[in-house]
Amino acid sequence: MAPTVALIRDTGAVIVVDPGMVPSPAAILSPLASLGLDANAVTDVVFSHHHPDHTLSAALFPDAAFHDHWAVYRHDLWQDCDAEGFSISPNVGLIRAPGHSAEDIATLAWTDRGLVVFTHAWWTAKGPAVDPYAVDPEALHRSRARILDFRPYLIVPGHGSAFAPSADTPL
Which domains does the chain possess? Predict the structure, then answer.
């Protein structure tokens, strides 16, 4: 299943989340071009975790800073930097959200309409309630509860359309 590739723009930052396995580079670059952006406009790339389906197209953005759970990478520089509490821009930050993998992070974007969370804590709006690939199901449950405690108005899951959390959202 293809990953959800997302674009966030905030105060000079152009952020792509999870540029993973897609049919061709055009699947990512054409939507950017329709917004007047090219690959060089992307300032930051966030990896929710290091599975290939979420990272494989990262090289499309040669000048971006790449963020994961423990560092920021740009060109040949590796800067140790815990994702927990890290701010990419004034309205976009990162938190740790382990469970699917031990290194999962979530991207939090504060908008005029409320908080949007980009995360692989859910594959889709329906879950699955039990992630069949989770390395730590209990940590995943805690991460889901933590994300919901932020009261996001929208969650963008790892492999599906954005959804508004509800009482039916799997923990």
Answer: 6-156 (3.60.15.10)
